[in-house]
Design a protein that fits this description.
- This protein is of the alpha/beta class and about 90 residues long.
- The protein has one domain.
- It contains three helices and five strands, in the order βαβββααβ.
- The strands form two sheets. A three-stranded mixed β-sheet has the order 2-4-3.
- β3 and β4 form a beta hairpin.
- The N and C termini lie close together (about 10 Å).
- The mean pLDDT is about 85.
Amino acid sequence: MTIKYTIHFLAKMEDVFSESNYLLRYEKGNFKSGYCILKEQNVIIVNKYYPLEGKINCLVDILKTLPIDTSRFKEKSKELYHQITQTSLVLQ
């Protein structure tokens, strides 16, 4: 799968998180990895000062590491989730 660093692709990634049981927030922070996951509260915080590429890369990393229940996903979100988690990604 090819990742294109566009606002449209970021919106698709945000849709995946909005359909999951995790809450995605953009806030300022001094995170070493660019994001913080509060697993007990199902909250993901991404550094809001990151550029578009950094935000997308953080969300891809998070999707690959978290166990997310896809039963509530719409078909397009489920397809994107499986493409990201099951394949190697080509960055563009």
